[in-house]
Write a structure and sequence with these properties.
The chain has helices at residues 3-7, 22-39, 60-66, 98-111, 180-195, 206-209, 223-238, 261-271, 318-330, 332-350, 389-396, 407-417, 468-486, 502-509, and strands at residues 43-51, 70-75, 81-85, 89-91, 114-117, 129-133, 149-153, 156-160, 166-174, 213-220, 244-255, 276-282, 285-291, 294-299, 302-313, 354-358, 363-366, 370-380, 404-405, 428-432, 438-442, 446-450, 453-463, 489-496. The strands form two sheets. Strands 1, 2, 3, 5, 8, 9, 10, 11, 12, 13, 19, 22, 23 and 24 form a 14-stranded mixed sheet that branches. By secondary structure, it is α+β, with helices and mostly antiparallel strands.
Length: 517
């Protein structure tokens, strides 16, 4: 018997008893420690067991108080809802090869995973690695702030799977010189704090009863500058260098108190019946949003991706709503824009997948205040090819839906024309498991929040025939969900429009440089 295993019986009891057997957790952690010593390299352990029904979102406010690292996810595509607290393993990378670096590192840890409890090794549908990536790498990262990529294994996680079952997962990275029993007990204590008194009323949050009032709101670029940029993009398209480019705006908010992110997530989840809602806390920031667009998901070799384009406001009556949907279906420009995305996704998947199928014609995706054209592309990955979620993410991002087409020319245009860093906006965010299955969404309808400051993002696809006023109105429509979620009230004395103070200009140009709140 190893020293660590011998200590399991003498370790102090956990406050989670009798729901969880602490000795079972300690045995799994001790086994991983033994494996680390045998192999001479760190090993990841993941212990899990079923829980009575718990709503992960109901624990978000407590998680916010427990840790500076939090990840929340809920998806209508798979039915998975997950809340992770703390980190056992960070995998990050800078530069254009950030997807490949994270993918290779995760494969190494996943192959050697030691599973305990009910067992989750290789189990599709159980998030183990969570996080996201920057839209384009390296623009502001050298000064600190939002990283090019950051994925991590939550130390404690409550997960509800698509079948409705709820699970607790505890993870740790065990090196040869680690104390597995101390790590196991630390994870048990974290879980006890996260799950304590879950039947009680949520802890009070002053911002819910007293919404933040905006001191400053300004746009980057301002409305006239953005319209000129749209016109310049259309001219570039007419010259034949581009078919489409996605141009984004940023709205910067300064409030009189910190924004209540857990309350904002509640509003997003309750008002966003389609797609995914996410919130990631790291480095003093929250990045959150509700997106209708699945970049790609993989489950047991089956691949699904979406292709979105075009926007129309929801109607106030059923007839008006149907008319808006029909206008999208009848619009030649919008149909072409959507077909470009569909063709791109199908072509990329065909390089590594088989049985690639795209919907013959787009349907209508109806959200709370807007509706879009949407198509679906499905495929299969032969088992012998060893292709996982991040392989496909690397190939697909960015699709023409958020970048443009041709891709390289569009990305050059964006880097040259947008006066701010997108950060994680319009980039992949989501999760994957030990079998390399999982789901990644496109992080649109999103915001970066640091204390009493927030940067909201919205963009639209510019093609031949795009009209600046129409495109500006479309971005206003897309900003509404996050404005509503943050529940900020515009104070009568607040500045509106472009602000010229040095601090405001710096914040507008590079929100990733904000000091951590």
């Amino acid at each position: 018997m190893t020293t660590a295993a011998a200590r399991t019986a003498a370790a102090p009891p956990s406050r989670l008893d009798p729901m969880i057997d602490p000795a079972d957790v300690r045995r799994a952690f001790a086994a991983a420690h033994d494996a680390a010593r045998r192999h001479g390299r760190p090993v990841l352990v993941a212990w899990a067991r079923p829980l009575p029904r718990v709503e992960p979102r109901a624990l978000l406010r407590r998680a916010d108080r427990l840790s500076a690292r939090v990840f929340y996810w809920t998806s209508r595509w798979t039915g998975v809802e997950s809340l992770g607290v703390g980190s056992s393993l960070d995998l990050s990378a800078e530069g254009a090869d950030r997807f490949a670096v994270v993918r290779r590192a995760w494969r190494r840890y996943a192959r050697g995973l030691v599973a305990g409890g009910s067992g989750i090794a290789g189990r599709a549908g159980f998030p183990l690695l969570v996080g996201g990536f920057a839209f384009q790498p390296g623009r502001w990262h050298p000064t600190g702030g939002v990283p090019d990529s950051l994925t991590w294994c939550p130390a404690a996680q409550v997960v509800r799977l698509g079948d409705g079952s709820t699970h607790l997962a505890l993870t740790a990275r065990l090196a040869a010189d680690a104390d597995p029993i101390a790590l196991a007990d630390a994870r048990l204590e974290l879980a006890a704090q996260l799950l304590a008194e879950t039947d009680e009323q949520p802890l009070p949050d002053p911002a819910v009863d007293s919404p933040p009032r905006l001191v400053v709101r300004f746009d980057v670029p301002d409305a006239e500058q953005w319209r000129r940029a749209v016109g310049a993009a259309v001219e570039e398209i007419h010259r034949g260098d581009l078919t489409k480019v996605v141009l984004a705006r940023q709205v910067v908010l300064h409030a009189d108190q910190p924004f209540a992110v857990p309350a904002a997530v509640d509003r997003l989840a309750e008002g966003f019946s389609e797609g995914a809602v996410f919130a990631a806390r790291f480095a003093g920031y929250w990045f959150l949003g509700g997106t209708p667009e699945c970049l790609v998901r993989v489950a047991h070799g089956e691949v699904t991706a979406h292709s979105l384009a075009g926007s129309a406001a929801r109607g106030t009556t059923a007839a008006a709503d149907a008319a808006g949907a029909q206008s999208l279906l009848d619009n030649v420009k919008t149909r072409h824009e959507q077909s470009v995305v569909t063709d791109f996704v199908a072509r990329v998947l065909s390089d590594v997948c088989v049985d690639v199928r795209a919907s013959a014609r787009p349907g209508i995706l109806r959200l709370g205040n807007v509706q879009h054209l949407v198509g679906t592309v499905t495929a299969a990955v032969p088992a012998h090819r060893g292709v996982g979620l991040l392989d496909l993410v690397e190939r697909l991002h960015p699709t023409p839906a958020v970048g443009g087409y041709p891709r390289r020319a569009a990305l050059r245009w964006i880097a040259r024309s947008e006066p701010f860093d997108r950060g994680w906006y319009a980039a992949p965010v989501g999760w994957l498991d030990a079998a390399q299955d999982g789901e990644m969404a496109v992080a649109i309808r999103s915001a970066l929040v640091s204390g009493d400051r927030a940067a909201l993002f919205a963009g639209c696809g510019i093609v031949a025939g795009s009209r600046p006023d129409d495109e500006y109105a479309e971005t206003d429509l897309k900003l509404r969900p996050m404005l509503t979620a943050l529940d900020a009230v515009l104070d009568g004395s607040a500045a509106s429009g472009p602000v010229r103070s040095p601090d405001a200009v710096q914040d507008a140009a590079a929100p990733a440089r904000w000091d951590a709140a």
